[in-house]
Amino acid sequence: METTTKNHFFNDLSVMLGRSMRHISRSMDTIVTVTIMPIAMMLLFVYVFGGAIETGTDNYVNYLLPGILLIAIASGVSYTAFRLFTDVQRGIFERFHTMPISRSTLLWGHVLTSLVSNAISVVVILLVALLMGFQSSAGILSWLAVAGILALFTLALTWVAAIAGLTAKSVDGASAFSYPIIFLPFISSAFVPTESMPKVVRVFAENQPVTSIVEAIRALLAGQPAGNDIWIALAWCVGIMLAAYFFAMRAYRKRV
């Protein structure tokens, strides 16, 4: 009986994932838009501002890349909120609830779609960074660790997006949550060392989640020990993900 229930859940999940992925494939401009903005930002900072920014490294692309990846993910999850809001407004969830399917798979389909689409964006940005001179001495385990951190970061923000998509009153409200998140890397060590910032700004920058995530990814890509940054980064990602998951499921139950 338990095996049948599990199979039923995963079968439903595959259907919901396929549905969401078809929406993505029919509007590839979503992934293109999410990818182009961070790439344009990377080109701007490297070739226009890079010569005036002191980071203590010879290759500014290496320094900049982790922050660009986080910005791309933050931009991408806003579309998850939009798609969820659209489903709620059109009564899609109510229609699915009349069918014999696992209800939680409706949300998980959107979440996994976000994970896949953002992974595509990250790979494209990495390829462009390689063309711009990005170099890494990281081994396979370090690359897997980077992938794991980025996946956790994506899941954490996607569940935050789910809250926005389920509770927003308008389309603009559903995607507006991403703006502060996209702005966070600018007040971190993503673009410049925090030592160059005024004291008040530096204290905030050094104690917000993006800085520890950026520092951990940067160290891993350089083939260096990540130290405490990796544990702090994981704690932030897991903590945000669990809290957002709780409130998203609560909002889901209230909404539908």
Explain the overall architecture.
The two termini are 28 Å apart. The chain has helices at 2-26, 29-49, 60-89, 92-97, 104-131, 140-167, 171-176, 178-183, 199-206, 209-221, 228-255. 78% of the residues lie in helices and 0% in strands. Residues 1-6 have low confidence and may be disordered. With 256 residues, the chain is mainly α. It has one domain. Helix 2 (29-49) packs parallel to helix 5 and helix 3 (60-89) runs antiparallel to helix 5 (104-131). The radius of gyration is 19 Å and the shape is elongated.
Order of helices and strands: HHHHHHHHHHH
Model regions low in confidence, pLDDT < 50 over at least 5 residues: 1-6
| Major sheet | none
Question: Mean pLDDT, as a whole number?
Answer: 83
Whole-number total of structural domains: 1
Oligomer: single chain
Percent helix among the residues?
over 70%
- Secondary-structure content class: mainly alpha
Task: Give the beta-strand count.
Answer: 0
Distance between the termini: 28 Å
Tell me the number of helical segments per DSSP (H or I, 4 or more residues long): 11
**Radius of gyration, in angstroms, nearest whole number:** 19 Å
Q: Beta fraction of the residues?
A: under 5%
Shape: elongated
